[in-house]
Design brief:
alpha+beta; outer membrane lipoprotein receptor (LolB), chain A; globular; disordered N terminus
């Protein structure tokens, strides 16, 4: 009887040890309720973050949706799309101006060949240099036209590099008020993002 009880206790402990909770995302910003100018200044310095979500792509009368994982580090950007319509599993690595992609078929491309393949898969040239900023809901350094809240200064949308980027909803994440739903569009192309988790 004691052995049965001991065995049951050991099994219960094993089950509990196998249960892992996802650690909360670190707080690196001034707080989601902090004044927007203070948040923007901190976001412009943020060089390490990640997100999980979904992307919907439309170009040239066709479209697809895919799961999205993105990681930004001081050394570069890592983007993973998993979905139908020939995208399959696509991994994109940008380090400075060096671009590399790997497809679900095992193909590995870099440089202009990688850019051409990525454009072929998506139906448009992805604004890779600006993307890391746009995901945070702020424009990249350079020329931009802003539409801000007159009272708080919060950015609703902006136009940059021929694209209009709109933030339709925000949620607290990493100590900021970050985009939850974001759309980047230009003539003939649209990219919609739903962020499910910041990290």
């Amino acid at each position: 009887m004691c052995r049965v009880a001991l065995g049951a206790a050991l099994v219960a402990l094993g089950v509990l040890a196998g249960c892992r909770t996802v650690p909360p995302a670190p707080i690196v910003g001034p707080g989601a309720d902090a004044p927007w100018p203070q948040q923007r200044a901190a976001l412009e310095k943020l060089d390490r973050f990640g997100l999980n979500g979904r992307a919907a792509v439309a170009a040239n009368g066709q479209g697809f949706s895919a799961s999205l994982r993105y990681q930004q580090t001081p050394g570069g950007s890592n983007l993973a799309l998993d979905g139908p319509m020939g995208v399959g599993g696509l991994r994109v690595v940008l380090e400075g101006k060096d671009l590399k992609i790997a497809t679900s078929r095992g193909e590995k491309l870099d440089g202009e060949a990688a850019r051409a393949e990525l454009e072929h898969r998506l139906g448009f040239a992805l604004p890779l240099a600006e993307l890391r900023w746009w995901l945070l809901g702020i424009p990249a350094p350079g020329e931009v036209t802003l539409n801000q809240d007159a009272g708080t200064g919060e950015i609703h949308d902006f136009t940059q590099a021929g694209w209009r980027v709109s933030i339709s909803s925000r949620a607290a994440g990493l100590g900021f008020s970050l985009p939850q739903r974001l759309t980047a569009e230009r003539e003939g192309a649209r990219l919609k993002l739903l962020v499910e988790r910041w990290q």
